[in-house]
Write a structure and sequence with these properties.
mainly alpha
Length: 73
Amino acid sequence: MSNSLIKYVSENFRNPIGIGGKIATKVMNIANNKNCSTTLEHLKLNTNDSVLEIGFGNGWLIKQLLRLHQKRF
């Protein structure tokens, strides 16, 4: 694999943009599916709880948490 291709792929995993970014986002969602599903399954939020989501993925998990809990609060 050429250095320019490696750089392009790594940049899209860091900051997904364009078609490469869409592909990287799909790959991240597939790769992190088990982690996100397990987190959603075990995380029990209360009204005054805060969530700091850092680490794996591209923000899919925090979007799901907001979608699931915004009606409750």
